[in-house]
Amino acid sequence: MATVEETQVLVETVAWLEKEGWRTMSARAPTRRGARAAEEALTARGVRVPEHDISSGEGPDVIAQRAGMEWRIECKGLGERSNTRWSDFYRGLGEAVCHFDKKDGLRLGFAFPDSRDLRRFASKMSPGMRGAIGLWVLLVDVAEQSVAVVSPQEVFCPFCDGATVYPVGESGHIKAEHPDEWRFLAGA
Ligand SMILES: [Zn+2]
After folding, report:
1. How far is the CA of 76 from the centre of ligand 1 (A)?
2. Which residues surround ligand 1, an ion (CB under 5 A)?
3. What does the alpha-carbon distance between residue 123 and residue 120 come to, in Å, rounded to a whole number?
4. How many whole angstroms from 122 Cα to the centroid of ligand 1?
5. CB neighbours (10 Å) of residue 45?
6. Average pLDDT of the chain?
7. Contacts of residue 107, Cβ cutoff 8 Å, sequence gap at least 6
8. What is the Cα Rg of the chain in Å?
9. Which listed site, 28, 121, 137, 169, has its alpha carbon 20 to 30 Å from 111?
10. Is the dihedral of CA 79, 30, 137, 19 positive or negative?
């Protein structure tokens, strides 16, 4: 898979939020050049640019609000080499976790390109951790200009490296696709 710039993920995330009726308050690109590129890309697509423009400072990459709810989203791209992908993923995860707060209506998000490597890393996040802090995952497809959302109540199957997503507590997928692992889990 080709590399994907973090700025592209940011653009798709903002475009998706606006389409879903969220108001993007701020967005941050990794560099000033990226911030300009993101602003141009959004304007070209007719998407409203965030209220406080696009900057390159500190804080969550995207903050969006709707009816008393708030998204705090961390964005990461897809690097060329697998060890870069690995360290970018865990840095992004760490940043996403740092935005956690005990606040009603808060949704933590981690947005990254939908790819085999990043799904495999995502399958290492335990459902318990994601559920406890309410961490959503946004799978971005820059070619299709689309975003697929994985809620904290859904798990990236650890037995197929996250290729499949299923609801927490549902064993049907494991029984059907991974009978050996199911026997292991069931203690049979
Ligand atoms: Zn599976």
Report:
1. 24
2. 157, 159-160, 164, 177
3. 5
4. 13
5. 13
6. 93
7. 69, 70, 71, 72, 134, 136
8. 17
9. 169
10. negative
Q: Is the pTM of this model over 0.90?
A: yes
Q: Which two tokens stand for residue 19?
A: 């389409």
Q: Taking CA 97 as the corner, what is the angle to CA 93 and CA 98, rounded to the nearest 5 degrees? A: 115
Query: Per-residue pLDDT tens for 42-75?
Result: 999 999 887 777 787 778 999 999 999 999 999 9
177, 170 contact by CB (below 8 A): no
107, 136 Cβ separation under 8 angstroms: yes
Is 188's pLDDT higher than 60? no
Neighbouring C-alpha atoms within 13 Å toward the C-beta of 46: 1
Token pair listed for 178: 């991974």
Ligand 1 center from residue 171 Cα (angstroms): 10
Q: For the chain, which domains are there?
A: 6-156 (3.40.1350)
